[in-house]
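Lecture 7 notes: from sequence to structure.

We start with a single chain of 334 residues. Read the sequence below before looking at the structure.
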Amino acid sequence: MQAVYVLKRFGVFLLIVWLAATLNFFLPKLSGQDPVRAKLLAEAAMGGNVQLGLEEMVKEYDTRFGLDKPLIVQYGNYLWDISHFDFNYSISNYPRTVRELIGEAIPWTICLLATTTLLSFAIGTFLGALLAWPGAPAWMRYLMPPLWALHAIPFFLFGLILVYIFAFRLQILPMFGGYTPGAIEAFTWDYISDILVHSILPALSIILVSVGGWALAMRGMMVTTMGEDYVVFAEAKGLRPGTVFMRYCLRNAILPQVTALVLALGQILSGAVLVEVIFGFPGIGALLFHAIQENDHFLIQGIVFTVIAALGLGTFLLDVAYPLLDPRISYRRR
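Now the structure, written as tokens:
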């Protein structure tokens, strides 16, 4: 029964990916814009005049990108290509492919956002659990209000504040980029430490803003869990407070948090777009921003599809892992 359920959920995952891919293909077509023509006209305008032979250039690029074929043929080719993670060439970075550009940007986004998401989840969840626990240190009540206040500030705005303080006024941290311009990309301590130093400000802007939200959600769930009968019974049996806290309260209250964490991890490929743009961090968010600026049709399609597929995969893995996280959950028919 468990295997049948997993197969059903995998089928739903494939259906979601197909629907997302279909919308991702047809919605830009509804605008009626020709991305190749728009790009060539923009290049011509930068030169001060409309280039001769523009129509011939448009036809040539349409043929190269497969845009001269009937719509149904384009759709079939599109589905076949994305099944191989081939999203065509980038219009603004031709002859580089979309897969190459996404492949270069994904490690930066994953390293920054996966790390900051996991850290903010761990810190915020534990702080929220302790804040609801009667035996927690008294000083913690003074720690949470500023964290909750920071949670109301957008990532990008808090990032600008950090840049002004630590990069502009104190000048102790770099202001821009993922590494020092001209640095040699190599697996050496100097290069790695340079990347880490450049990651401090964008990481802090995400962690400090996110911790309060995780803590607030966990505190509410802990308050509810501590009133359950099994917790009262555990306390009545004389179990140690640490055991009641970890095994009876925290373990049962954390399940909704894990759900939110998986959904958050599924969205990390989209990045905190404005954070990456503000700090010049070479991740997916900055790549998407520049693709929108350049009206790079295929690059936008590739990034959007990758984000949707990652979110769907995260949801599928969460469904499969639920019985492992909570033995009370079972997909077997009774």
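The chain has 14 helices and no strands. Keep this in mind for problem set 3.
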